[in-house]
């Protein structure tokens, strides 16, 4: 069990992380702080960018069990009077990743005092979760195959759910999503002679409702699709130039990975159809796989929740995406739960702050899962 001293030190550690947020792919100092706080049999740094993995070996052969947290903060200015508020202008830990990291540091303390009886535990501090690039980068790292887990577990805090109440369900838990940037190129002209150029304005105006109609949301069930226009730009900010170029950014969202390719192809075909006299080019960004909970991993999480008397219910599927999904690729069995943060501001709000009372709950939950799968030494 974590002692009162542990909890006080972990609270101070979390608030120090909160004061020094770093955004995706820039988490160098955060990673250093994490590595310095670990006592493990092996620490792998620079994984997939700034990722850190800590390994705790058992005495006997057995499965590898991974627990994951995220390193990155958000490019959002924090609005808070808390003494530990962000000291970095325009950046803040407004999704609770500072708390998720601290939960794993608490778990590391428990594991350092008693290693598993068999197999090994890997604590994965993943970079670049917020832009969807981190898990793929970790998996592409040549050191990943030696760390690949048989089981993978994670949690995310959930404002609006009672403090410490867990939501855990089998099957899909987070949608797949992808950002699609559409660039339309024609030819500029003098504003007094627009007919001498080729303007993308009519195509842009037609595309916005046409793309939105491809996916209008609705119930989160097989076939769910949502297309959200997030940004549009037309020409130069000048009165004397008829535009020759435009950009449209849309976020594509589906419940299943398999549906994403079809939705993207339809969106690109629409762009071509609405701009026959223009050149249409495309870029994809923020590519998130769907997160799907494996029934066996859910069973282990449920057993640990029950053993610790943590209340839980299935909860709802999240429309939002989570970069944990890629870690659940076969043969890894994975599951993620959502741990209630109480009546707190919503995630990504400028006044959000992770509740420190969740740290011991999360650390003891993960420790129980590890003990159930690997036993104490």
UniProtKB/TrEMBL annotation:
<dbReference type="InterPro" id="IPR011650">
    <property type="entry name" value="Peptidase_M20_dimer"/>
</dbReference>
<dbReference type="Pfam" id="PF07687">
    <property type="entry name" value="M20_dimer"/>
</dbReference>
<protein>
    <submittedName>
        <fullName>Amidohydrolase</fullName>
    </submittedName>
</protein>
<dbReference type="InterPro" id="IPR017439">
    <property type="entry name" value="Amidohydrolase"/>
</dbReference>
<keyword id="KW-0464">Manganese</keyword>
<feature type="binding site">
    <location>
        <position position="95"/>
    </location>
    <ligand>
        <name>Mn(2+)</name>
    </ligand>
</feature>
<feature type="binding site">
    <location>
        <position position="97"/>
    </location>
    <ligand>
        <name>Mn(2+)</name>
    </ligand>
</feature>
<keyword id="KW-0378">Hydrolase</keyword>
<dbReference type="GO" id="GO:0046872">
    <property type="term" value="F:metal ion binding"/>
</dbReference>
<dbReference type="InterPro" id="IPR002933">
    <property type="entry name" value="Peptidase_M20"/>
</dbReference>
<feature type="binding site">
    <location>
        <position position="130"/>
    </location>
    <ligand>
        <name>Mn(2+)</name>
    </ligand>
</feature>
<keyword id="KW-0479">Metal-binding</keyword>
<dbReference type="Pfam" id="PF01546">
    <property type="entry name" value="Peptidase_M20"/>
</dbReference>
<feature type="binding site">
    <location>
        <position position="348"/>
    </location>
    <ligand>
        <name>Mn(2+)</name>
    </ligand>
</feature>
<feature type="binding site">
    <location>
        <position position="156"/>
    </location>
    <ligand>
        <name>Mn(2+)</name>
    </ligand>
</feature>
<feature type="domain" description="Peptidase M20 dimerisation">
    <location>
        <begin position="179"/>
        <end position="276"/>
    </location>
</feature>
<dbReference type="GO" id="GO:0016787">
    <property type="term" value="F:hydrolase activity"/>
</dbReference>
<dbReference type="InterPro" id="IPR036264">
    <property type="entry name" value="Bact_exopeptidase_dim_dom"/>
</dbReference>
